[in-house]
C-alpha cells in the first residue's frame, strides 16, 4: 500500500511540475519561432517592395533592433514574363542556378507568390511589376533554422536535467513524507499481530472450558444454552483472530519486514493445488445447491508459499459456492499464457452492486445489500486476505460482476520457477 502511495505521490508531482516546465519551455520556443518568422516575413516584404539597387543586407538594421538575427543573407531578382533575369541586387551573396530556376518556375509557371525550399534552406516571395515581369525576394534561412534547432536541443536538455533532478527530489520527499505513515502502519501491523497472538491463548481456554461444560450432564438445558452460545462466539472469535493474524503476516511479507520471512518461497505446483481445493469443495457446493466444474491446465508452477496460495484458492472457491444461485454451476479455471497463469473462479447468482465493486477487497467490508444470504455472513476479511496473499506473491486479483455474466474473480500470477 505504501509503495503504491509513494508511486502516486511521485507521479502526481512529476506530472504537475513537469507539465508546467514543459509548457514554459514550449511557450518560450514558440515565442522564439514566431520572432524568427516575423524577421523573415518582414525581410521578404521589404525585399519585394524595394528596388534591387536599394538592397542592404536583408534583415539588417530592423532585425537587429528587435534582437533577432542581424546577419540574414538574401537577394532580390527581377525577371521578365518569359523567365529572363533582368536585374539582380548587388548583395554579396549568390544563389545556385538550379535553385533560382526552380523559384522562377514556381512564380511564372505555377503562379505562386511565396514558397520555401527546405533542402536549399531558402524562402522567397514575389510581386508582379507594373511594366510586366516579377520581383522575387529570396532569403537564406540557414542561420534561422540553426538557431531554432539549437534552441530546441537546449530546451530538451534543460527538460531532461530538470525532470531527472525533480524525480530525485520528489522520491526523497516522498520517503520523508511517508515515513510517519510507514511507522504508523508498522505499529498497527505489529499491534494486530501481537494482539492476535495474545488472544489465541484465552480463546483456547474458553473453548476448552465450554467443551468440558457441554459434557457435564448435571447442567440444565437453560444453562447449557448459554454454554453453547459462549462456545459458538468463542469459535467465531478464534476464526477472526486467525484472519487478523493472516492479514498481519501478509502485510509483513509485502513490506519485507520481520526477522524471519513471513512468506515462504518454494516451488508450488499450482495445477495440483487448484485441483485438490476444487475436489475438497465438491461436496460443499453440492450441499449449497450448486455443482462444481474444474478446468486446470497441466504443469502450471510458480514460486511462493503453498499454504498461502491454498488459502487464497479456498477463499475464492468458498465465496463462489456460498453466493452461487441454486441449481447453477461454479467453475474454477486455471490457464497459462506465456509467463503468466490466470486463475478464474466464476459463479452465477446475485451480482455485486457496481457501487460495491471498488470496495470488495477492503477489510471488514461486506456487500450485504446485493449478496447476503442467511447464515453465510462473515467478518468481511476473506477477500481482503485473498488480496493480501496475491499482493505478497506479486499477483493481481480483480473482480467483475454483472447480472448476465455472473461474478468472476480473477488472479493473474507469474508462473515458472
Strand-helix topology:
Layout: H1 2-49, H2 61-65, E1 74-79, E2 85-88, H3 97-108, E3 114-117, E4 122-128, E5 134-140, H4 142-214, H5 221-255, E6 266-269, H6 270-280, H7 282-287, E7 291-296, E8 301-304, H8 306-323, E9 329-337, E10 340-347, H9 368-371, H10 382-392, E11 396-402, E12 406-414
Parallel strand pairs: 7-9
Antiparallel strand pairs: 1-2, 1-5, 3-4, 4-5, 6-8, 9-10, 10-12, 11-12
How would you describe the overall organization of this protein?
The chain has 417 residues and is α+β, with helices and mostly antiparallel strands. It has two domains: 2-148; 266-414, Heat Shock Protein 90 (2-Layer Sandwich), CATH 3.30.565. The chain contains ten helices and twelve strands. A five-stranded antiparallel β-sheet has the order 2-1-5-4-3, sandwiched between helices. It has a five-stranded mixed β-sheet with strand order 7-9-10-12-11. A two-stranded antiparallel sheet has the order 6-8. A hairpin with a 3-residue loop joins β11 and β12. The protein starts with a helix and ends with a strand. Mean pLDDT is 82; it is low at 55-71 and 369-376.
Amino acid at each position: 500500500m505504501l509503495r503504491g502511495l509513494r508511486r502516486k505521490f511521485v507521479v502526481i508531482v512529476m506530472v504537475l511540475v513537469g507539465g508546467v516546465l514543459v509548457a514554459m519551455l514550449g511557450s518560450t520556443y514558440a515565442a522564439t519561432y514566431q520572432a524568427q518568422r516575423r524577421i523573415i516575413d518582414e525581410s521578404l516584404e521589404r525585399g519585394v517592395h524595394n528596388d534591387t539597387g536599394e538592397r542592404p543586407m536583408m534583415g539588417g538594421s530592423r532585425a537587429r533592433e528587435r534582437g533577432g538575427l542581424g546577419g540574414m543573407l538574401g537577394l532580390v531578382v527581377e525577371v521578365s514574363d518569359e523567365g529572363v533575369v533582368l536585374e539582380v541586387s548587388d548583395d554579396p551573396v549568390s544563389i545556385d542556378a538550379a535553385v533560382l530556376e526552380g523559384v522562377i518556375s514556381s512564380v511564372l509557371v505555377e503562379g505562386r507568390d511565396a514558397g520555401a525550399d527546405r533542402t536549399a534552406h531558402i524562402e522567397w516571395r514575389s510581386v508582379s511589376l507594373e511594366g510586366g515581369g516579377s520581383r522575387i525576394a529570396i532569403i537564406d534561412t540557414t542561420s534561422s533554422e540553426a538557431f531554432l534547432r539549437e534552441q530546441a536541443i537546449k530546451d530538451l536538455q534543460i527538460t531532461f536535467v530538470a525532470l531527472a533532478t525533480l524525480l530525485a527530489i520528489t522520491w526523497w520527499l516522498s520517503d520523508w513524507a511517508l515515513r510517519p505513515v510507514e511507522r504508523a502502519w508498522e505499529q498497527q501491523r505489529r499491534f494486530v499481530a501481537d494482539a492476535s497472538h495474545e488472544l489465541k491463548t484465552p480463546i483456547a481456554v474458553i473453548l476448552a472450558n465450554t467443551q468440558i461444560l457441554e459434557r457435564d450432564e448435571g447442567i440444565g438445558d437453560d444453562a447449557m444454552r448459554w454454554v453453547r452460545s459462549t462456545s459458538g462466539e468463542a469459535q467465531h472469535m478464534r476464526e477472526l483472530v486467525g484472519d487478523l493474524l493472516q492479514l498481519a503476516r501478509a502485510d509483513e511479507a509485502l513490506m519485507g519486514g520481520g526477522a524471519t520471512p513471513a512468506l515462504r518461497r518454494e516451488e508450488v505446483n499450482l495445477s495440483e493445488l487448484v485441483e485438490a481445493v476444487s475436489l475438497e469443495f465438491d461436496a460443499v457446493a453440492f450441499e449449497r445447491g450448486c455443482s462444481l466444474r474444474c478446468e486446470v491446465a497441466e504443469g502450471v508452477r510458480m514460486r511462493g508459499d503453498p499454504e498461502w496460495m491454498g488459502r487464497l484458492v479456498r477463499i475464492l472457491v468458498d465465496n463462489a459456492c456460498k453466493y452461487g444461485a441454486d441449481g447453477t454451476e461454479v467453475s474454477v479455471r486455471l490457464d497459462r499464457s506465456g509467463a503468466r497463469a490466470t486463475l478464474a473462479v466464476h459463479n452465477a447468482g446475485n451480482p455485486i452492486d457496481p457501487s460495491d465493486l471498488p470496495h470488495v477487497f477492503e477489510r471488514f467490508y461486506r456487500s450485504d445489500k446485493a449478496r447476503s444470504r442467511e447464515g453465510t455472513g462473515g467478518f468481511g476479511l476473506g477477500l481482503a486476505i485473498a488480496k493480501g496473499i496475491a499482493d505478497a506473491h506479486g499477483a493481481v486479483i480483480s473482480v467483475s460482476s454483472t447480472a448476465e455474466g455472473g461474478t468472476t474473480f480473477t488472479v493473474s500470477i507469474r508462473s515458472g520457477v
